[in-house]
Amino acid sequence: MLRKSLNGWNLITLFIMLFFALFILFPVILVLNKSVYDSGSGTFTLEHFAHFFERKFYWVTLWNSIKVTIVSTLLAVLIGLPLAYILRRVKIFGSKTIQILVIVSYISPPFIGAYAWIQLLGRGGIVTKFLNNTFDMNYDGIYGFAGIVLVLTLQSFPLIFIYISGALKNLDNSLIEAAESLGYSGIQRVMKIVVPLITPTILASSLLVFMRVIADFGTPMLIGEGYRTIPVLIYTQFMSEVGGDAGFAAAIAAIFIIVTIALFLVQRIISRQYAYSMSALKPMEVKRSYGIKNVLSHGAVYIIALLSILPQLVVVYTSFLETTGGQVYTGRFSLQNYETILFNRDLSMILNTYKLGLFAIAIIVVLGIFIAYLTVRKRNVITSMLDTISMLPFVIPGSVLGIALVFAFNDAPFFLTGTALIMVLAFVIRRMPYTIRSSTAIVSQISPSMEEAAISLGASEKRTFFKVIVPMMMPGVLAGAIMSWITILGELSASIILYSSNTQTLAVSIYSEVIRGNFGNASAYSAILTVTSILSLLLFFKLSGKKEMNL
Questions:
Q1: Cα–Cα distance for residue pair 491/489, rounded to 1 Å
Q2: What residues are paired with 323 via a beta bridge?
Q3: pTM for this structure?
Q4: Which Pfam family is one of this chain's hits (predicted)?
Q5: Which of its termini does the chain have fewer beta carbons within 10 Å around, N or C?
């Protein structure tokens, strides 16, 4: 009986549950525990929470985060939805290239966008100088609320675009034609037919944008100046050498966890109210447009595409400009910045990015394969819990996870703080959901009859899994793994808390160089990260066999 209960799959399930309990649940519980206990006396207290809500500075910061997130998400929908619809309805010259450019803008880390816009519209930015000198203006730069919203909107709308593009492929065009025959105008058809039908997709993609924006650390840190958000507050409170309070930082993190989980659950409840499936018997067709409609369609698409890819163009361009002291551009083209970071400096931060990322991806792939198979084929109470816990890192912001891991592994017997292992663990935990969701989707598409046929021919269950199921899963697994890899490259929120001098990554290096004002080096590092992300995206298309990215 004991042998039966401890078969291979049960042991694997137990091992993964222990892994999640140790590296996800235990750290989060420690954060919650530290937030309600006095570090000196060890007694239960709500003083940290009272301190947060008594001081206007702190609860206003929470409201700042919510306000930035709501505005950025709404603007992302207002840009992504029309763009997806136009590209599905109107024949746009270079539409495939535009879609690639939009996706490239999404896979780059948000803080690179913030840095690029500082180069353009900062106090010493190219555009700022032009406006002030030409029109005798006193424009002070794109800092604060407006700057954060601009960067995060342009960084986030591609995700809305990707999701809605996929949904529009399943939309039956006969419904739109019927509305047209009843005299509905183009805008009325979109608002009364298209938007209601794709509402579940809009809500799902909006949630992803919402969670990404509210947890972003790099953008408000670089461009926010006096406009603080919760991730920045958590970081400064935890890392401050003077007046830093780990218990208070834990309380802020606990409040943030509660807010993000509550918002996540509300969205899930709303989504269920609109849940239904569509089947396109007559898919939407791309048609050539004429006159003012054609001009406006092309103009809108090209302007949006240019704005989205502009940060990447800026960092690549400025990486080839000569600088004086690393801070002032001379206007001459040079390889000086690349010579500095590649030959006059330690290459460890570049090598660390790839080395730690590859270790993390190897673990993610293994976990993704097993978790997807267990949650689909071996469904029970424990594997259902496994599926739920695996999505927690998606809800918990990176800065909170970083602090949680420090709390959990800063003492014996698990002293991991400052090591490469804790960086790898942070990457695995943060970016695992992408591969798990992709792997689960493809397992669901594999018919159980494939396994039954292999077993009927004499193959063991283990051999069937490794020789039949895993090879069939690999396209979906690798596609998800590449998306995990791309996001690992730009991981900053957790890394900035966990890194040491021996585990510094490209993302941390870019952030550090910008803070120090070494813009030339920051541009060169950013260009390397951008090119790596683009090559990874091309690999995604190659392995998945797709010509576009739809979710």
A1: 6
A2: 329
A3: 0.84
A4: BPD_transp_1
A5: N
Which tokens sit at 69?
A: 């997130």
DSSP 32-68: HHHHTB-TTT--B--HHHHHHHHSHHHHHHHHHHHHH
Q: Which residue has the tokens 């919203």?
A: 149
28 by DSSP, 3-state: which? helix
Alpha-carbon span 153 to 165, nearest angstrom = 18
- What is 221-279 written as a DSSP string? HHH-TT---HHHHHHHHHH-SSS--HHHHHHHHHHHHHHHHHHHHHHHHHHHHT-----
Ranking 4-8, 182-186, 307-311, 399-403 by mean pLDDT, the lowest is 4-8
Stretch 309-329: mean pLDDT = 84
Q: Can you give 393-431 as a three-state secondary structure string?
A: HHHCCHHHHHHHHHHHCCCCCCCCCCCHHHHHHHHHHHH
Token pair 């400009």: residue: 321
Q: Are 507 and 495 in contact (CB under 8 A)?
A: yes
Angle between helices 398-408 and 26-35 (to 10 degrees): 90
What are the tens digits of pLDDT across the range 230-267?
A: 888 888 888 764 455 778 888 888 888 888 888 777 76
Please name the residues in contact with 234: beta carbons below 8 A apart, sequence gap of 6 or more: 249, 252, 253, 256, 399, 400, 403
Higher-scoring residue by pLDDT: 546, 103: 103
Q: Are 163 and 200 in contact (CB under 8 A)?
A: no
For β-strands 328-333 and 321-324, DSSP reports them as: antiparallel
Distance CA(394)–CA(435), nearest Å, equals 12
Residue 472 scores a pLDDT above 70? yes
- Residue 548 contacts residue 163 (beta carbons within 8 Å): no
Residue 263's Cβ-count burial label (10 Å; 0-12, 13-18, 19+) is: middle
3-state secondary structure of 545: coil
356, 420 Cβ separation under 8 angstroms: yes
Q: In 3D, which of 393, 468, 472, 466 has the Cα closest to residue 439?
A: 472
CB 430 within 8 A of CB 211: no
What is the per-residue pLDDT for 1? Answer: 41
Task: Give Cβ neighbours of residue 461 (< 8 Å, ≥ 6 apart).
Answer: 451, 455
Pairwise CA distance, residues 16 & 20, whole Å: 6
pLDDT the model gives residue 272: 67
Maximum separation of any 2 CA atoms in the chain, in Å: 85
Q: Among residues 342, 367, 355, which one has the least CA distance to residue 488?
A: 355
